[in-house]
Amino acid sequence: KKEKEFSKRFAPAVTTDKHRMEVVANIANADGALEAVNNGAEGVGLLRTEFLFLERDSAPNETEQFQAYKKMVQHLNGLPLIIRTLDIGGDKEVSYLNMPKEDNPFLGIRGIRLCLEYKDLFKEQLRAIYQASKYGPIKIMFPMVGLLEEFREASKIAEEVRVEVGASKIDIGMMIEVPSAVLMAEHFIKEADFFSIGTNDLTQYVLSMDRGHQGLAKKADALHPAVLKMIKMTCDAAKKENKWVGVCGNLAANPLAAKILTGLGVKELSVTASSIANIKSEIRKTSLKECEELALKALSLQTSDEVRSLEE
Ligand code: PEP
Ligand code: MG
Question: FRET label pair with 168: which of 51, 141, 208, 288, CA 20 to 30 Å apart?
């Protein structure tokens, strides 16, 4: 029985018709990397680096960051680590940046926009990431990209830093969590190495509902067909360029959603460590064909309640 539990967690997620889904973890720190490995993660699909920056009086310096990233790479022991560059602003504030007060922080200077305003901070983080990349497989991912020029500027800075620290090239991808990035995905994916869809923010911006609003929690549903259509557009654009798409928002940990996402063409699901075994076993119970039919059905529906009722 123990053996069965073990293989359930650590065996790959393959559908009954032999389609392989990658199941990786969302983490916030080095302990999280260890927890991910112990729970059967095939890597880390999202390191939320902002947790290294929150609740302190100053930003962690390059050495501190390098040591944290290196430790994660070591815990992962050859498994890939996707490091998302600093994603603050919005609801995540840090006192030491003295950010001007905004009327609409979720529509203000956040994510990559903030990094491009605070370039020294951004470069310091990139230096730490590229130094750590000498110790194991790391990929970089930029958050909240909405405009091509943002991706280009951030990539250009990353490339300058890479050359400066003498590191090898690594993949640079971006989060898809802003509607404009979905609509322009065919252009972005010519320049980005991969996409990872942040369904938490994407839902917020597509439905125009604050992701933390108590009164809207039920309506702000990532299983809304409008959000699913956005995910499909993203996958279709990436497929044309032979690039892969992951999902790292909370939606990926929902069993029905995991099947719909598989059917829409998502290749990687990044979830909290505690959900990994469960998502893997959901995938093993189904076939790609069933997932594709489910996805098609979901796309034809009109409300999130209708989508949710697809769960038998
Ligand atoms: C998301 O927006 O779905 C996401 C994964 O990023 P975060 O939750 O950290 O904003
Ligand atoms: Mg987000």
Answer: 51
pLDDT tens, 247-280?
999 999 999 999 999 999 999 999 999 999 999 9
Which sign, positive or negative, has the C-alpha torsion 102, 106, 111, 113?
negative
Place of tokens 């969302």: 26
To test ligand 1's pocket by mutation, which of 177, 196, 275 has the most ligand atoms within 8 angstroms of CB?
177
CB contact at 8 A, 176 and 227: no
Residue type, 91: D
Stated pTM of the model: 0.97
Cα–Cα distances (Å) from 273 to 2, 31, 43, 82, in that order, read 19, 11, 10, 15
Predicted pLDDT at 90: 85
The whole-chain average pLDDT of the chain stands at: 96
Dig out the tokens for 149 from the structure: 């020029």
Question: For a substitution probing ligand 1, which of 248, 250, 261, 269 has the most ligand atoms within 8 Å of its CB?
Answer: 248
ipTM: 0.99
Select from 304, 227, 301, 302 the least CA-distant residue to 261. Answer: 227
Q: Band the pLDDT of 196: cuts 50, 70, 90.
A: very high
Cβ pair 247, 23 in contact under 8 A: no
Q: What per-residue string of b and e applies to 181-201 under the rule 16 or more CB within 10 Å gives b? A: bbebbeebbeebbbbbbbbbb
- Rounded to a whole number of angstroms, the distance between the first and last alpha carbons of the chain is 28
